[in-house]
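Try this one yourself first.
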C-alpha cells in the first residue's frame, strides 16, 4: 500500500489561508501551529508557510506589545489583486499603443519587403499577452466566491502577465535592433520616430 502524499507548499498555503478566511480573526503563531494540523499542515512547517504568505502580502502581521498577531481578510486580499490587475491594464494599454504607433510610422519602411521573423514573433507575443489578460479578467470575476484556490490562481496569472509584458518589451527592442541593422540609412530618422511614438531613453522593462 502506497504512502499518502504530503501536501505541497502551495497546498499548505491554501490550507492556512482557509484558517484565516473561515474565522476572519487574529492569531498568534502558537495558535496557528495548533490549528495547522487540523488542516493537514504539520505544526513544524506552519511558521515557514505563514512567512511565505506574509512575503506575498496575502497574510499580514503586526506587533501589539510583546505579541505578534497575524490576520488575512478576503476583502483586503481582493483589493490588492484588483490593484495589481489595474497596473497590468495600464502597462498592457501602453504597450499596445506603442506597438500600434510604431507599426504605423514604420509602414513606409516595410513597403515591398517581407515581414521579419522578429515582427512576426512580436505579434505572437502580443496575442498571447492579450489572451492572458482575458484569462485574468475571468479569474477576477470568479473572485466573489472567496475561494483561496482562486486567489492563488490569480496570483500566478498576474506573474505570467508580468513576464509576458517584459517579453513583449524584449521584442520591441529586437525590432528596433533589426530595423537599425537592416536599414542603416534610416537610423537617424528612427531616433526622431521613437521620440514621436513615445519610446524614450528610459523605456525599459516593467518592474
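Now uncover the answer:
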Amino acid at each position: 500500500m502506497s504512502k499518502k502524499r504530503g501536501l505541497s507548499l502551495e497546498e499548505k498555503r491554501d490550507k492556512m489561508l482557509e484558517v484565516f478566511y473561515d474565522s476572519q480573526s487574529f492569531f498568534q503563531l502558537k495558535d496557528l501551529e495548533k490549528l495547522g494540523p487540523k488542516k493537514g499542515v504539520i505544526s513544524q512547517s506552519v511558521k515557514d508557510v505563514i512567512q511565505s504568505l506574509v512575503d506575498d502580502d496575502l497574510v499580514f502581521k503586526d506587533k501589539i506589545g510583546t505579541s505578534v498577531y497575524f490576520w488575512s481578510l478576503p476583502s483586503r486580499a481582493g483589493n490588492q489583486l484588483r490593484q495589481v490587475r489595474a497596473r497590468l491594464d495600464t502597462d498592457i494599454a501602453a504597450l499596445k499603443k506603442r506597438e500600434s504607433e510604431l507599426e504605423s510610422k514604420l509602414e513606409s519602411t516595410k513597403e515591398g519587403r517581407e515581414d521579419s521573423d522578429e515582427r512576426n514573433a512580436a505579434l505572437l507575443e502580443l496575442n498571447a499577452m492579450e489572451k492572458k489578460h482575458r484569462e485574468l479578467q475571468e479569474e477576477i470575476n470568479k473572485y466573489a466566491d472567496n475561494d483561496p484556490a482562486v486567489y492563488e490562481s490569480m496570483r500566478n496569472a498576474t506573474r505570467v502577465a508580468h513576464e509576458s509584458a517584459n517579453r513583449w518589451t524584449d521584442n520591441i527592442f529586437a525590432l528596433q535592433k533589426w530595423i537599425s541593422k537592416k536599414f542603416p540609412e534610416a537610423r537617424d530618422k528612427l531616433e526622431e520616430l521613437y521620440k514621436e511614438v513615445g519610446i524614450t531613453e528610459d523605456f525599459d522593462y516593467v518592474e
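Discussion: Residues 90 and 96 are 10 Å apart (CA to CA). The beta strands are 60-64, 67-71.
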